[in-house]
Every structure is written in C-alpha cells, then in structure tokens.
Fold these 3 entries.
Entry 1:
Amino acid sequence: MADSRETFLVNAFVTGWPVKHSRSPLIHNYWLKQFGIAGTYKAEAVSEEDFPAFIQGLKDGSSGYRGGNVTIPHKEQAFRLADRPDALAKELGASNTLWMENGQLNATNTDGYGFTANLDARHPGWDKIDRAVILGAGGASRAVIQAVRDRGIGEIHVVNRTVPRAQELADRFGPKVHAHSLQALSEAMSGAGLFVNTTSLGMDGGEVRQIDFSPLKDDAVVTDIVYVPLKTPLLAQAENQGFASVDGLGMLLHQAVPGFEKWFGHRPLVDEALRDLVIADMERHR
Ligand code: ATR
C-alpha cells in the first residue's frame, strides 16, 4: 500500500570546476543531520561551458535544486545569470550563494559576512578601530574590503604587489579605500588595528617573507583568509611578535550560514564540533 505522506526533500548543491576539494558538503551535511532535516547537499562538478545549462535547470525546476553555493570559477557567471542579485553581489560582480524564490533566481555573496562573523566570534571588539590593512587585491580581497568598509572602519589600506589592481579596488569601493605598493606596507600599517592577508602567500606551506608587524597598534589583530595550514606562516609571525591572531577557517564555516538558512529554513550555528570535523578532514587530506 502506498504511503500517502510525501516526504518533501529539499536539495542544495555546491558547484565549481573542480569541486572535489570543497568542504561545503561536510559543513552542510553536518547541519542537516543536526537539525534532522530531510534534505541533501551535494557537490556538482560543472565546467564553465556547462554552467549556463546548469543554472537553467535550477531556474526551470528540472534539476530539483532549491539553490546552492558557487565557487571558482563560476562566481562571476552566477552573478550575471541571476534574476535578482542583491546589492552586495552587484558591487562585487560575483556571487557565491543562489536560491530560488517565487520563480526567480536570487543571488548574494556571503564571503564578507563569513569574514566579519569569524572575527566577531573569535576576537569580539575587533571593529573598534580606525584603520585596517588588507594585503592583496585579487578576487578574495574584494568581499573582505566590502565587509570591513560596511562595518564603518574609517580607513582601509589595500597593499598589493601590482599597484594598479589595488587602485582598481580603491576606485570601486569608494573614498575610504586607499591603494599602496608593497614597499609602502610598513607605512600603511602604521596605527592600524586589523591586518588581513588575502594573498596566496604561505598557502600549503609555501614560502613567505618576514613581515614586521610592529607598526600596528599593540592590540591589533592579524588574520589570514588562507586556512591551509590553519596557522599560516604569517599568523605564526604575528603571534611571535606578540599580536593576536585569528585563523581563516571560521570564514569558510560562517559564510555557509546564510545559504543554509535560505534553502533549509533554519539558521545553523558554527560550533567547535563543526570546526573539529573540518580540521580532521584537512588532516586526512594533507
Ligand atoms: P584570488 O582570487 O584567490 O584572490 P588572485 O586573483 O590570483 O587570487 O590574487 C592573488 C593575490 O595574491 C594578488 O593580490 C597577488 O598579487 P598581484 O595582484 O600582484 O598578482 C598576490 N600574490 C600572489 N603571489 C604573490 C607573491 N609572490 N608576492 C606578492 N603577492 C602575491
């Protein structure tokens, strides 16, 4: 006899190319289990040329997904293909979170939220500062600049090897944002209360130059959006010089929160057990 109750399964995805290294399934499946939600969250490897068709399947309902996360290299295309990008996504020209609502594809970018929520959790009061330094002007630095600016930090100094890239971001994100060369790093750091590394320096154990953090305020916090290894050479240097540090793993965990809430209707918590789960996975795949 057929069961008259229908189980309504909500499905979400993370798509990228490649996507197999993504830790998003681990995070969202942890929360699905925690809430006991009848839902799925799966990785979808989609090439750039297949991405428009993938999005079409989301829009017309044929894919069975309510929404999902988008990672490299699809963030810009996702923004362009969305029906209703929000103001954050529009300013960045990139989106990492998509969801269907009233037949329309909505898009936002939660990387900046992830960045500030991580600092709020691990170094409360970090935003009571007048000046921040952001090292790097690549794709990853944009959401950080936007989020720090939107917290009301007075001066944001973007320091980059290629100055025109930093200047482009200063032009994009408004008069509070200033561009500098690496040679001007020390000067840019003078009196700053927050230092953020958004470059790939030190990733996967790569070499990194010695940075003198002493121009920062004594109670400044140093953070890195690279989280492999968890303690990057830059964070280790900052700690050795007596500065507080916050690792980048929390940014990954917190950026997942708004998406989960959109798709599955519950706002999840980033707890230590989740953090430990992801760290254990990082150790396994070292
Ligand atoms: P993402 O989108 O992940 O941020 P990206 O666009 O390639 O990646 O940017 C990488 C950032 O790391 C850039 O700021 C880059 O500086 P340039 O704009 O001058 O290329 C910075 N970066 C990478 N390797 C570097 C190195 N060896 N020294 C200094 N900066 C470096």
Entry 2:
Amino acid sequence: MKIRALTLFPKMFDCINESILGRAIKNGILDFDAVDIRSFSKDKHQKCDDTPYGGGAGMVMTAQPIYDCINAVDPNHEYLRIYMSPKGERLSDGLCRELAINQNILLLCGHYEGVDQRVLDLCIDREVSIGDYVLSGGELAAMVVIDGVSRFVEGVLGSAVSHEDESFSDGLLEYPQYTRPPEFMGLKVPEVLLNGNHKEIDKFRRQKSAELTAERRPDLIKPDGEPR
Ligand code: ADE
C-alpha cells in the first residue's frame, strides 16, 4: 500500500519508521512518504497561510500550495484523498478495514484554523476525524489513521497474528490477557487459563469480553445483549 502524508511538518512523521510500521516499510509492504506542502508554495517567502476572509481569529492555509502538492503527488487521481478534520466522518474499526482495501491513500494535514474550502472541494474525496476534539494539526490524526489502517494490510502484522480476537473485531472489547509468571505481587492468573482446556478458555474469554463491554461500553451492546 502506498501512503502519502501532505504536511507542513514532515519530520513529525519520523516515528512511522519505528516498530511494526517501520518493519512493514523496510519489508516493502508499506510505501510511505511525508511530502512538504511548503516546497510547493509560489509565494516568495514560501508562505502557506493567510488571514480568513470575513474576519475571525487565526490563519487559513492557502489553496495554491496544497493544490499543486496534491497534483504533483497524485496527477492521475490514483490515491484516495483524505483530509484530516474534526468535521470528518469518525474513524472506527470498520472505517480502518474499509480504507485498507485501497491501494493508495493520501492524507492531507491541515493546520491553523483550517484549509481554504475551495481546495477541499476541488481535490478531496473524504474527510476523516479521529474524535470529537480539536488537535493543533492533522498530523497526529493522520498517524492514527496510518497505524489503524496498516494493521489490516496483509503482511503488516506478520502471519502469526490475527484480528479475530481484538477489541471491536466481534463488536465487543477484548478480554484481559496474562503472561508469565503465574503469580505477580500476590495476583494470580485465572486458573482456567492454565489448564489447557480450550473450550473452557473460550467460554471464560467470551464472558470476560461481555462483562467488560457492558461495564465500559454499554453503547456497543443492544438491549437483547447482542453486539450492535
Ligand atoms: N485535525 C484537528 N483535529 C482533528 C481531529 N479530531 N481529527 C482529525 N483531524 C484533526
């Protein structure tokens, strides 16, 4: 999968080269680049923002550098072009899976009070929000999308890992996990996990999953007790 982040702060994306995503990049499963919007500005000082028409606080990112940057990175519109915005559709497990189907995604990161609406109207396919709060820029939100989506790209997590038991995969939160030692600071691993009876273990985990979801996320459960 090819991912391009368009940003005024490309260095913020250095952390993508760590851990699981870093390995996927090294192995050629992910092809990632952070593209500096500023280098496309035709302003003599490479300015990329201006005061909003109609007045108001803050600055708005100008259309020209973004328009030229998008068209340089994606001249034939082969990327799904996403603008990171608190006004967008909310990121979810379902949306991560859906976005992972695309061969190429481009993530436009805004800053200041936002981006000139015309460049969004001209170039952007979708707007995505990572939650109902406002970040100072779209970069951290774009990294959340990249991480959440990449995990569903074949080969990124390695063959031994499956999504089946994760939180949200069956509409519920994941059961608690334990590893060695069997006792830590006086707390014991639940006996059922040590006895090797997989039917019992599955039952225990399903029950823990249901309890945890009912306690923490009742909104995920229908009145009949089934996941939504
Ligand atoms: N940019 C600023 N806040 C954001 C949010 N909540 N989601 C996505 N992009 C953003």
Entry 3:
Amino acid sequence: MKFPVYRARRLRRNETLRRMVRETFLRVDDLICPLFVRPGKGVKNPILSMPGQFQFSVDTLVQEAQKVYDLGIPAVLLFGIPKAKDEIGSEAYARDGVVQKAIRSLRDAIPELIIIGDICLCEYTSHGHCGVVKGNEVDNDATIDILARMALSHAEAGADMVAPSDMMDGRVGAIRKVLDEQGFTHIPIMSYAAKYASGFYGPFREAAESAPQFGDRKSYQMDPANAREAMREIRLDIEEGADIVMVKPALFYLDIISRVRMEFDLPIAAYSVSGEFAMVKAASQLGWIDEERVMMEILVSIKRAGADLVITYFAKEAAKLLREKGGY
Ligand code: PBG
C-alpha cells in the first residue's frame, strides 16, 4: 500500500482518532517517585538544581509520600542523607539510620505504598564513593558485604523492595543470599543493572550530598559508549536473582532499553535522572520549551522504548496531568 491509496494522515485527523490508534500508554501505575530524607524535624530544603524537589525530614517525608500515594503513584524510591558520614558508610546499615526510620514511619502511615530502598554507600561515605576505598580504589568484595547489610536493614525496617545502585560486581547475589537467609525471600530486588557513568547525575549529587571527593565513578559505572556490555550486566544480575532490571539514565539510553526489552523477559525500570529533569526545568524557566509537553513526550518515549516502570522526578506532575487528561 502506498500513496495515494495509503495516506498516513487519515488516522491523525483528530484527537479521538489518534487516541484510538495510539500504541503506547503512560499510566500512573508506571511511575516511581524518588524522595530524599535527612535528619531533623519539619525540614523541607529546596534542591536548587532540581526545582520542586526537596530534602525532607521523616515527618515531612510522610506528608509528601501521602500526596504521592493519593495521586495514585504506587511507589517511592528512598535516598538518605545521614547525620554523619565515615569511611565505610556505617550509617547506611544502622538500625536507626535516617532511611530506616523513614521506612518505618512510611510503613505505618501508608501501608499500601510500595517502599523501595536505594542501596548504595555514596551518600554515607566521607569520600563520596559508592563503596569502601582501599588505597585509591573502590574495593568490590569488601563493599558487597556492607551493601548486603544495608539491604537487610531496609527489609527489617519494612521496605517492600531494595534497589542496589552501586555497580559492584556480585552485589545482587550477595543481597539475595542475605535476604533469603534472614527470612526475606519475598522481598524483590530491583537492580540498577546497566548504570552508566553519566554527567547527568550532577543535580542528584547536590540533592543527596554525595559527590565523590576525589576521582570519579568510571571504575565501577559503565562506559556510555557500551551497549553489548549492558546486556552482559543485565544477564549477570538476572542470574544472581534480580527481579526487575534497570537502565539508567533513560533518555539518552533508549537504545539500551529497547535492546534489553528484546533480549530479556523481566520487567524493566528506567531511571530518568536528575540531569534530564534539570534540563527540562531550566529550559522551561527560560521559556524555551513547553514543560508539560516535553515531560510527557520524554516519559512516553521511555515507555515506547520498552520500559515498564519509569523512575522520575516528574512523577507527581505527570500523575496530575494523567488524571486530568485521562492518559497520555
Ligand atoms: C547512587 C545513585 C546516584 C543516582 C541514583 N543512585 C548517583 C550516582 O551514581 O552518582 C543518580 C540519580 C539521579 O541523577 O537522578 N549511587
């Protein structure tokens, strides 16, 4: 069939027709909302490079999470800024650490909310690396024991899921083993399986106060130039027990998402990271783009590429829009 018999524009004539032939949908159920928690009371510190995002204390976090849940968003992903940092990030697995307290309070306040704990040491270490530093290197095997303890402490506090974002080798297996041994066989692992060493994490490092004090993360996060390696990372994490695999960042890695969708059958999460969010906010503040439109276009593109779940700082705004307009 070709022109003039076929005219692609026939099915684009109005919104009702476009709705009928739409191939991809963004649903509120697809969204995961990242939230930052720090010690204190009544805290709501704006994160300057991420307009509309805040560091909360446990009390204000619960209020925020209630709003998130009331919009229909099923899950939050928690990051902690501890009261003190040290060489090995011991606050990361403290029973009374800030995230563990937040998990307990959220668990009580909003029983149906899915609480996901981010598992990584960079917010908790004095040097800001995602693992234990020996000499000038991040020591893989010493780190995975600590990560497993951290994951266990989240599960004990009542988390529904853990999400290791550190990119150490073998950490999914180590976490699965400890969780299973301690009676948490039912807690899924959402693994940041293909996480790239990206410049787009800049604003997050302000939000989580987690910038590395020396060097960079290129010895553990992936080279942005590599795609086949991402398939290897995903395969390994699945073999070690990942239940959901993640690609991160999202927008500039849609090819990776699409390949993972073709090669694997587990649910895929994509993390639309802080830099992706900040770019949209900045351009929109300058009046250069239509924020709502660009936001929805980005989110539906991530789904079109093959992601099932989208972790995004736009979660609340997108959920509001989906409710008002009845879908993308
Ligand atoms: C922790 C972590 C990072 C992000 C999520 N978990 C930062 C990093 O690896 O430097 C980035 C999220 C974002 O930019 O929104 N390792």
